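Practice set, problem 2.
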Amino acid sequence: DGMQDLIEALLQLSRVATQAGTPSDVDLSSIAVDALEEFSVAVQRSEGHVSVSGLPRVNADPRQMRQLLVNLISNALKFHRPDAPPAVRVYGRRLDDGTCELCVEDDGVGFDMQYAGRLFQPFSRLHSRKDFPGTGMGLAICQKIVERHGGTIAARGSTGRGALFRVVLPGVKRGAVETAVPRGALN
């Protein structure tokens, strides 16, 4: 039921801030592989393909990273061209400044870049509800998760030629654990 889905999506959006877990060292690859289990039926049914490669480790809330990946992969699969099975690539790398890049790229219906700014607004839809069901909240939730983690999310696309969502998140600080000084140890 559409109203129930919308209420659930709004609750998810509000929970990003209120139910945030403690950030920890998260292996995005294993989270992506785990998230893909949710889509195994959809992928088989569409004869699509999702590849995961080179995802870095980040300092993040693991539950929210899973939600981020689920939403981005779900969109990439949903917005495929009617005449072609979806091909989705999930990949990333550690950048020179220590931050981490996560990309979800598809070859689906894409979007017109002039509407890119609307993609992350709650309830905003660039495609008709009858062609592509959903609440229009998935990317708003993604943006809120990414911003909560001190990162950025951006989208590139063109109509009929797919889309690329690029997330940049703080990486795991190397050696941060060893250098931590217990509170009160210095006075």
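Problem 2, part (b): a different protein.
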Amino acid sequence: SVLRDPDTERFRIWYGVPESASQSHLATMESDDGVRWKRPHRVLDDPGRIQFGVSVLDDRGVDPDPERRYKYGWWDDGGLQIASSPDGLRWRRMAPGPVLRHNHDINHLYRDPIRNRYGACVSVYGPDPLWKGNRRATWHSVSDDLIRWSKPHRIVWPDARDGDGATEFYAVGGVLARGELLFAFARVLRDDLPAEPGGPVAGLGYSQLVWSRDGRTWVRERTPFLDRNPVPGTWD
């Protein structure tokens, strides 16, 4: 997660650093311009065991308790875990375990200012009559307090219109409110394709745009909105 602090006008990033293949820790850095980051990074004390995932909100002006200005969501023990912090550095659990159960290790928290509530886009991995084998799809839930969540429902999934038999989604993130709409990015995963023509089939990804008028039903645009860099050998 990358946020701009309205007090300092600096950018702040929170991300995971590995402990092992099944555990990570929370780290942070700051930047004046969002491009050049001040190092070394700082590894923070974990609020609990972290398997994967970093989704941070700045609730300044929303939560009246300054000790809970920042909210942090991650995945461990079969679901979304929640912590809060006064400064984005010292974190404390808001619940003793998962507040929203789902079986895959990606989740994204956001604040819906139109409806004055929180939302979560979470990844679910499994079979369905629409596809062969197991695939990743995105489910959605809403909450007034980050602790009690509505029953999740599926919002982004592969279907016959994708036509390839291999499309799946690494969840949905980057939710933004613009007027009466919510916009977000669906992260497409294609493990069946080579990154370069004729190269090894190691997979590639890109982002499609999704949007919602009611905060519950989402429409996915099929064409890439943020495509990968076409230059071979580049970072993405």
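Answer key, part (b): The two ends are 18 Å apart (CA to CA). Residues 39 and 84 are 24 Å apart (CA to CA).
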